[in-house]
Amino acid sequence: MSIALFLSVFLIAACGLIYELIAGTLASYLLGDTIFQFSTIIGCYLFAMGIGSYLSRFLHRGLVARFVSIELMVGVVGGFSSSLLFLAFAYTEAFRLVLYVVVILVGTLVGLEIPLLMRILKERFQFRELVSHVLTFDYLGALGASLLFPILLVPKLGLVRSALVFGIFNAGVALWSTYLFREQIGRSHYLRAGCFVVVALLGVGTIFADRISNAADNSLYADEVIFSRTTPYQRIVLTKWKDDLRLFLNSHLQFSSRDEYRYHEALVHPGLAALPGAHHVLVLGGGDGLAVREILKYPSVESITLVDLDPEMTRLFSTHPVMSGLNQHSLTNARVHVINADAFRWLDTNTEQYDFIVADFPDPTSYALGKLFTTAFYRLAAKHLASGGLIVVQSTSPLFARQSYWCIVESVKQAGLRVYPYHVYVPSFGEWGYVIGSFEPYEPPKQLPSGLRFLSTANVAELFVFPVDMQPVPAEPNRLNDQVLVRYYEQEWKDVAH
Amino acid sequence: MISRRQFVAAPALIGPALIGLSRKTDRPVTGGFVNDSFPLGHRLRDRAAFPKPAQQLRVPIVIVGGGMAGLSAAWHLDKRGFHDFVLLEMEQQAGGNSRWGENEISRFPWAAHYVPVPAKGDSLARELFEELGVLRDGKWDERVLCFDPQERLFINGRWQEGIEPEDGATPKDRAQYRRFMEKIGEFRSTGQFTVPMENRAKASPLDRMSMADWLVQQGFGSAPLGWYVNYACRDDYGALAKDTSAWAGIQYFASREPEEKGPLTWPEGNGWIAARLIDKLKRYLRTGGMVYGVVRSGNTIRVLTERTEYVADALIWAAPTFLASYVIEGAPRAEGFQYSPWLTANLTLDRIPDQKNAEPAWDNVIYDSPALGYVNATHMSLATHVDRTVWTFYWSLAEYRPEEGRRLLLARDWNYWKEAILNDLARAHPDIRQCVAHIDIMRIGHAMARPSPGFLFSEERGRWLKPAGNMFFANSDLSGFSIFEEAQYRGVEAARGALRVVGRA
Ligand SMILES: Cc1cc2nc3c(=O)[nH]c(=O)nc-3n(C[C@H](O)[C@H](O)[C@H](O)COP(=O)(O)OP(=O)(O)OC[C@H]3O[C@@H](n4cnc5c(N)ncnc54)[C@H](O)[C@@H]3O)c2cc1C
Fold it and tell me: With CB atoms 3.0 to 4.6 Å apart as the test, which of A335, A362, A407, B105 could cross-link to A475 if both were Cys?
């Protein structure tokens, strides 16, 4: 009997700590700044527990029934806390409000548990013994939870499911209590029925946990942030989930290590493999060095110039063990020259010519970035093409942002180049588009470097075929004085998001 | 699988929120008054004694005043293959109201900062822009067309795109905007409102009423429309709508029908044009010498500066017309000409103020401000990332009578104007004082001709348009309002007249 009692203390203590850890972890994942998140969440949580303990004095009669219903409430609020927080982050602007409300609510309820339980048990044990046992199991529960959480729960269950499972434990303790203290509460059908309902609810939640996290997870860093830095130019975030590394710039996913080879092979090889005599290559943007990694597969290429705005970005991808591993140390290769400069201005003040130019800029989410997708930019880039040379432009999604995509194609065309649009499927991005611009007629390559994981001579020509739902739509060219692209883009991605 | 899309920018918000907690104290701002020209002007007004010039030179044509009008006159003479002339400018730097400055961040304008894309009918402006490589085969160079976003307005606590007030406009307001634009369309189709104005302007009763009265007469009672029209008058003429001729007010809207989204602009504003003209014409240009006297003797004209006396066959007076009576012997006072005083300031920002999710535009206007807003010099930069910039702040002291405004300009010290400017900007940019390092202020007493009601079709303006024998008047103020195209037109017209005098028509 007493073992059973103290086991429930152990469990509720573990549950309480788990909710707190989940809130802290989630907030750190989503907002960054781990120290701030954990400190404020632990602080609020402990303070709320204090409120709960204080409030316990106002509960007089029917203590067991009260205890059972509080357990059920903890189970529901705590169990659904991570689902709620993910969804709040994805769909509302009030994430932090929801976060602290949840933390305070759970904290207050958990604060009520132990004082109530002690009062329920005070008839059965000596006070000295009671305090010692309850607190011992309380602290043991905390230890168990804090070990279980990083080792088992997060990797195996994930945040959404862990919370739900521990919610079920709370409900289980409630149900169990209706048996343990049956003399004290007499008829307790309602309470028991309540317990079953809560368990069922949380059970269903567990089954749908993947859906919930997918719904929220589309573009969030639901994974562990292994690196984050704010530079004068952008916020760089690298996340890791098992073997999947993801890079976010200003919250926009740049690549996932699971499928970036598709994106980068498609960016580089259709153009470069068609230029057997290419010696000098220019990469604009692309400070992650992944496009450069692909270009280095061509022994004929003598020099690669990489122009990226952010020195921190190229430094990281040159020196950080994980990141430079991804690009196979491309940025420190002797053939590669890294220049940190604003691409448009840099091109404007330089006269060198290149056989192959890669324009791999972030999507045109602002008028500032939109400049890099204008007729004026392509006209300038075209001046830097050696005779017979090609330029390839990453051009957003022809499926989600169809008019934006064809607007970029039109802009390259208006700069006086022949255009060869193509696309590829990258699971983490969806359908993605590119366009090759060239003064001479272009044909997809008949040969490719060895060791590619996605492209083959059999499928490269297929990239240039557009299914009906991605085929050209009328679009104005994007010009410096009239950046239609930024407006198309904003509208189209807004439509996709809703 | 929607990935690169923008979603709740929570991670980006927390940083600034934390920084916001530790509000930095205001920083000291350096600066002062620059380019003051009134000490020179006052010497003329007070008929101070000037030293006798040491040398005499015989030059067939002398141009006085190296602003856009004088430079355009010189441009025309040179293009016609006539090289025997000088262009005299009292300041060290030519350009007049199209002067510019430069610091380690950017070049910036001191006054004129744009030219609307010239219509097909404005052949002179198009000729110049073709020569400067801005117009090629009928296509305007994208890099000098004002980049997107062009204008924005701070209203109701937030920025909107464009300066026609949209935020908070009622359906009634919108209906009035539409009717106003229809009316303007009708005026445009009369063909009488052109640039330059003299091409097709016809005397009209509209010139005898004020723009404000015209709005009332037409039943335009919408407050935001009233603000917008008043803003246009303050911005282009330095005068309130109630002090502006309705003809001029309508000209502002009806004369333009751009073939291309513009305007033309450069980091240094119209200083870009001035600099190119100065470079082409430097061999004729004599700066740093004020013309203090012009005396007829027989068929020649003696033009006096402190260093040299020029003896000319023809004179082009491209300095402001009101100065003629102080300098040219026997010239009448230009009584009807009124000039608005202006204040411009160039602010050096070594941090960009928080934009609250709105992208900075080229022209940034604050609703209901007495000033006109600011133009961002780095807007025309090709860079995607700018961390320092220069803003040119414009303030026509339109609510004062011109003399009062000029008195105020001189009476208040730099600190007063600096505070006024920062307080005005703080309404839209609360953190402005943590961003501004330096403010240079330029006071221009007679900055812009004012098209007061009745002036445009007055006899007096008509008199000054005619040459006085072999003296030709060329300042843009002869058009009743000064803009680049008017200065260019007046300068070229005067040059044509002068060429006739010297027998080279
Ligand atoms: C704040 C401000 C903003 C403006 N913005 C615009 C704009 O955006 N777009 C636009 O088109 N227009 C603008 N203007 C109008 C501008 O005045 C005209 O564009 C044009 O520059 C006028 O040229 P101007 O040659 O007629 O006159 P000024 O520029 O006044 O030139 C007269 C010249 O004569 C010189 N001078 C005077 N007296 C003497 C003397 N005794 N001896 C020798 N030299 C003398 C002066 O130093 C000056 O250089 C603006 C004006 C102001 C004040």
Answer: A407
